Request: fold
Amino acid sequence: MSKTRVFSGTRATGRLHLGNYFGAVKGYIDLQNDPKYDCIYMAVDVHTITTPYDHRTLAQATKEIIMDYLAAGLDPEKAVVTIQSLVPEHVELAFLFASIVSVAKMQHLPTFKDKVKQHPDNVTMALLNYPTLMAADILAYKTELVPAGLDQEPHIEVTREIARRMNDLYGTDFPETKRFATPAQYVPSLTGEGKMSKSVEGSSINLTDDLATIKKRLASCPTDSGKGSTIPEKGGVANLLTFVEIFQGSERKKSYEADYFGNGLRYGDLKAELAEAIFDHLAPIREKRLELEKNPDYVNKVIKEGAEKARAIASATLAETKRKMGFYVQN
Ligand code: TRP
Reply:
């Protein structure tokens, strides 16, 4: 029985946080552990340069993602773990795909519009091509399933459109990729608004933060008087209770809710206890991460071998695509 191909990627913009872990990486781990799937996970550093970035730290930020992946439990014995730019076939395939994608279509994507708003002075060709490159990441491996959040659905829809059009025009056999909604936990932002995100200052806790940092992050989460007849459904208090539920269980959450309706909830105590719970929960990841930091040769080997495995597949797809598109291809 042939296995179902899975691909996903994380942009290389720094360390993984709790939102990445509960929202994505835990799902990646479940899939890698299921023998039905053949998984490829990458730090997508070429996507990182579609918005302003620091060339002095890009390589390090990319490696951080890989080390966090491994510390969290991605296993190179079970899945391919590597860096996108080490598989240059993605960029080449993206250019070929760009020949069948209209500029107008790309300009209308919500993700493009958001980035234009965030970085009005950096509306580049690379940014416009973001979805084309993502389609290349996915289709280079004829990927059927992409574990990713709902916000990625427009990109995966573009990927399906590219696959259909390529197949119609050139007779390729790209699959219609589906998004795989892993049973992810929604991790809210510490600012009280939206989800935890790398790009929102003060919104996140990283997987390897120390206790003092976790306490500091929780301290800045907005609260209220701690008393009342209804608990707000949104904002800092609601988010803190979501964290309590994730890290301390629903019983503890219920007891805080009872305090809120009764004598009052003391947020100082809640935050101190929660910080410890989060810190303890992350202990195995922190330990693994320290071990990896002492073993750069091992990490480099994982990346190198992962790239070799990925290239073997991607180069075959690229050669086939070029041949079907009418290029001169040597055997
Ligand atoms: N666009 C994705 C994000 O912002 C990252 C990404 C790039 C990706 N290529 C991918 C995700 C391929 C899944 C598959 O999170």
